[in-house]
Every structure is written in structure tokens, then in C-alpha cells.
Amino acid sequence: MENTQKKVLIVDDDLALQHLINRFLSYNNYITEIAPNCAIARQKFQSFQPDLVFLDINLPDDTGLRLCEEMSKTNVMIVMLSSMTDSSYILEAFARGADDYIAKPFDLQILKARVEALFRRGANKITSPTINNSIVLDNLKINFYRREVILNNSSILLTALEFDLLYFLANNPNRVWDRAELISAIWNKDDYDGDDRKVDIHIGRIRKKIGDANSEFIKTVWGRGYMFELSSCNKVKLAD
């Protein structure tokens, strides 16, 4: 029988907190690994291949923000755990690819709820009733089942959240989506903390990665939200 337990890597140099989270998640049926620094975290990340990473910002051998950016090039979900509560750190964490940010100290039950919400979002990637396997627009191809984006015949590395956001907009084109709707669809409504700046940050990262600096694909409708502009003549559904 296939093992459906989720794997979580905990990266924190506070050993007491690290082991507390480890015991708590293990008790709640997660498979866990721990790492006290970035070097060990990189090794564990390759061998363990976690579904989610808890990552502190201040680590003894490197910054967790740099590690976040490295890990976010895969489909792993990343939750920053930090005592740094200044908005500049939070915004930079999202800009580096974090899926969530939880300030220390925190309640373990709330931590568990946030993790479950992220995995629910992962299990229900797109709320649209119709899932198109592939969407092709000029030189851009988005493949839902392979979770792959190809631009000019080259693979583009998006985080799991960035892919979900791009696919949702492309699969629901020519309609303006406000930030609250996008947060509800992509982040899961339980995760909406009222800060809609995270949408702008991720849209900016997607535009940069797909070469959309001039907003050719993702349009900003000022005062309303975002829209993926797509005409029927250049939308193609492909089968594997």
C-alpha cells in the first residue's frame, strides 16, 4: 500500500524547539527529519525529499532566506518560522518563495492547522471546474499534470505556489480576479490573513520568470486585480 504520510523537514538551530515540533508532528502522523543548519538541511533535502519544510531565518552557517530561495525552485512547500516580525523580513520571505510565515512564539495547534491548510491547497490545486491538461500561448506552455512551464522550449522553475497561481489565471482567462479571490483559490481561504501584498509579490516573481515584464500575459487591472488575457485562437488543449 502506498504511504500517504506527508514528510516534513524541520530546519532550526533552537534544538529544544526543533525537537518539540518534531515530536508534535510525529504524534500527528507526519514523517519528520530535523536539521540544525543549512549544510545539513541541504543534505537532508536531497535524501529525504520532503513535502514541506519549516525553515528559520537565522541559522548559524547561512541565512534561511537564501535556503528558502534554493528550495523554492522545486515543488516543496516552505513555511518560515522566525522571531523576526518586521514586515520587511516577511515580505522578503514571500519574495524568496515562502508559502507561509509564522512568527515565534506560536501555538502548536495553530501550526498544525496552517500545515493542514497548505496540504489541502496542495490536494486541491485548482478550484476551477475544468482542468485543461496543457495551455499554450505563443511561446509559453503550461502543463497541469506535469506541473511544468516551458518558455521558448526551455523549462521555467516555479515554486509550487507560483505554478498554482499562474495556472489558475491561465485556465480562467479574460476575467479579472481580485486579490482576495486569488488568495481564497490558491492559498486556501483558511490562510487568508488580510495581507493581499503577497499576491503582488508572487505575480511579480512569475512575470520575471516567464519574461512578462511588459504584462503581455498577466494584466494588472488597476483598482481591481489581475487577469490573464487569452484569446480563443491561441489557446490549445493538448493530450499527453
From TrEMBL:
SMART domains: REC, Trans_reg_C. Keywords: DNA-binding, Phosphoprotein, Transcription, Transcription regulation, Two-component regulatory system. GO terms for cellular component: cytosol; protein-DNA complex. Residues 7-119 form the Response regulatory domain. Residues 132-230 bind DNA. Pfam families: Response_reg (PF00072), Trans_reg_C (PF00486). This is Response regulator transcription factor. SUPFAM superfamilies: CheY-like. InterPro entries: CheY-like_superfamily (IPR011006), OmpR/PhoB-type_DNA-bd (IPR001867), Sig_transdc_resp-reg_receiver (IPR001789), WalR-like (IPR039420), WH-like_DNA-bd_sf (IPR036388). GO terms for biological process: regulation of DNA-templated transcription. The modification 4-aspartylphosphate is found at D56. One of its GO terms (molecular function) is phosphorelay response regulator activity.
